[in-house]
Write a structure and sequence with these properties.
By secondary structure, the chain is α+β, with helices and mostly antiparallel strands. It has helices at about 10-20, 35-40; strands at about 5-10, 20-25, 55-60, 65, 75-80. Helix content is about 20%, strand content about 25%. Strands 2-1-5-3-4 form a five-stranded mixed β-sheet.
């Protein structure tokens, strides 16, 4: 039996700076978006920006979410920089 997972996707500047478009994480280790951000930032380097001073927006299954939002096995969690307009 395979362990339930979460799909993590990165968009725009984050995708370029992190050097990946998506990855898969075990769902049992991540209960909220904040858990995921802390884990990913612990990789160091460019990953540290996920919990740094630059804000990161998040969506779970294409709906806007917050760091305190819970994640469930099978969810797709997307991180992207804030959108600015002029």
């Amino acid at each position: 039996m395979t362990e339930p997972t979460l799909t993590v996707r990165f968009f725009a500047r984050l995708r370029e700076e992190l050097g990946t478009e998506s990855l898969t994480l075990p769902a049992s280790e991540h209960h909220t978006v904040a858990d995921m951000l802390t884990y990913l930032a612990s990789r160091g380097g460019a990953w540290a920006q996920l919990t740094g001073g630059q804000p990161v927006m998040v969506a779970i299954n294409q709906s806007m979410a917050k760091p305190s939002s819970p994640v469930q096995p099978g969810d797709e969690v997307a991180f992207f920089p804030p959108v600015t307009g002029g």
